[in-house]
Design a protein that fits this description.
Blueprint lengths: L4 H4 L8 E4 L5 E6 L4 H7 L6 E5 L4 E6 L13 H47 L2 H43 L1 H19 L10 H4 L10
Parallel strand pairs: 2-4
Antiparallel strand pairs: 1-2, 3-4
Helix pairs in contact: 3-4, 4-5
């Protein structure tokens, strides 16, 4: 899985910590503030923890300077391993959905359109009906795939949150949620909504900018 691949080579700082995880995976912790362009782009969006990876082996985690000291336990080795396991699990299941559902449906639609191009004149008015039904079927398949992937994401997200709670302790987890909220308030000088416990994972979740 590639995570924010464009950011990976944009990191100019030296890591302030390097974590060695299982299977030879390395996590480099960098200061987001020392990467000015990235800080100016993401900090105003309340993105204080940004993961990036291009090879599934070396991860770079950029952390805002005032955010990290208050939430340090959410980025320890065991929690970071949990996050990487979360992404790997989601990627495996999403790959199965694409392989066994989306790709076969797409191939079927492609074949039908090729046949329509070849035998369209012989089909007459039925050509338009077949084309319409095929398009509707493709749209329905897309909706199904998206819902399936969302269900997979939510399932593993909940499991990851529970694992993180067990690592840091349930009481400490709640305290870290309060610290996260306090940092938002201090950074922006406003009263934001209280973060949900899911935001521990979502704060680090790069789905919006993943590359394949």
């Amino acid at each position: 899985m590639k995570i924010n691949p464009k950011i990976f080579n944009s990191v100019t700082s030296e890591p302030f910590d390097v974590q060695e995880l299982k299977d030879g995976v390395v996590v480099e912790l960098h200061s987001l503030n020392q990467n000015e362009a990235l800080f100016n782009e993401y900090a105003p969006k309340a993105k204080f923890a940004i993961w990036t990876c291009v090879d599934n082996k070396t991860y770079r985690l950029l952390l805002e300077d005032t955010y990290y000291p208050r939430t340090r336990e959410l980025y320890g080795k065991r929690v970071n391993q949990c996050m990487i396991d979360f992404w790997d699990a989601v990627e495996v299941e999403r790959g199965k959905v694409m392989k066994f559902i989306f790709l076969p449906v797409s191939l079927l639609v492609f074949i039908i359109f090729i046949l329509l191009m070849i035998f369209g004149e012989q089909l007459g008015n039925a050509q338009m009906i077949i084309m319409t039904v095929t398009l509707i079927g493709f749209i329905v398949a897309n909706v199904f795939v998206n819902k399936k992937v969302e269900k997979i994401l939510n399932k593993h997200n909940s499991e990851a949150v529970e694992k993180i709670k067990n690592i840091v302790g349930h009481k400490r987890f709640d305290e870290l949620m309060d610290e996260q909220q306090a940092h938002y308030d201090d950074f922006f000088g406003i009263n934001d909504e209280e973060p949900t416990e899911e935001e521990v994972v979502e704060e680090n979740n790069p789905n919006e900018e993943q590359g394949e």
